[in-house]
Amino acid sequence: MKVVKAEDAVGMVLGHDITEIVPGEFKGVAFKKGHIIQETDIEKLLRIGKEHIYIFEIDENTLHEDDAAIAIGNLICGEGIYFTEPKEGKINIMPKYKGLLKINREVLDEINDLGDMILATIHGNRLIDEGHLIGGFRVIPLTIEKEKIIVAEKILKEKGPIFEVKPFKKLKTALIITGSEVYKGRIEDKFGPVIERKVKAFDSEIFYKTIVPDELDIIKDEIIKSKNMGGELIIVTGGMSVDPDDKTPGAIKATGANIVSYGTPVLPGAMLLVAYLDNIPVMGLPGCVMFAHTTAFDLLLPRICAGEKIFRKDITRLGYGGQCLSCKVCTFPDCHFGKN
């Protein structure tokens, strides 16, 4: 730092907080450290007795914290993401619209490993609404070596942005409710309304709904019929356990569908099945989806509705963080559940 006359400090970076005191009215910071002195600031500086001030010298090899934050912000934000105006070297990361939040954890770690800058985030692979804070980037010192920013820029240009929001697709969804007790009218269907509400939350709609008995061939035929009718997501509810009358897993397999996983390391939702029939996702849902607030279905549905294909490793990795605590006041997805 060096000392300069206030009148000569325009465009320079203030190296310390400057306090203003108005007896009986105000005592606080008039100018914060890191403030870039403007022509309009000179009169106030002189009025509060600051004829000389300490300023940071920024040479060709250093960047002011705000300039560095903007440079990095332009590269970490991908599709559907923006950052706020920098303040004291900090920017907030925000979504432009509702969708599935994706965060590149590998690149995030590389940036944080560089030092002199930090990037904090929430978890990815979750629904995010417009206006929801995703994270924040901040330069730690008031000025930072340009070389460090150049290294960060090289990483980001080579490996892509860290943040992206994938919009949800309007999937034509077929809902096949199994259960002879429901089919014969012995009990009321409680599954349908739950699934319709969850699917609608991701901008999709139920275009075909039917109730069928626990008969393997009937369930199989309805799955194939749903695909031929243009279904883009097929959901089959019930009949997912190992009881003799539970025929849903066998029916899905009998269609020729490729079973990605029958069983997920998630509680509740362990008996959930994910398959693909000619690239159309088919999900077999256990009974817990009907009465539990949050299950494995809630972890996978957003990704499917965003157009992502689910692979077995996507499911097996859910075990870490896969135990729901059934909190009295549910805050999902703002909790640990499903955040591997």
From TrEMBL:
Keyword RNA-binding: no
Entry-linked Pfam families: MoCF_biosynth
Cross-referenced InterPro entries: MoaB/Mog-like_dom_sf, MoaB/Mog_dom, MoeA-like
UniProt keyword Oxidoreductase, yes or no: no
Job of this protein: Catalyzes the insertion of molybdate into adenylated molybdopterin with the concomitant release of AMP.
Family, similarity comment: Belongs to the MoeA family.
Protein name as it appears in the record: Molybdopterin molybdenumtransferase
Classification lineage: Bacteria, Bacillati, Bacillota, Tissierellia, Tissierellales
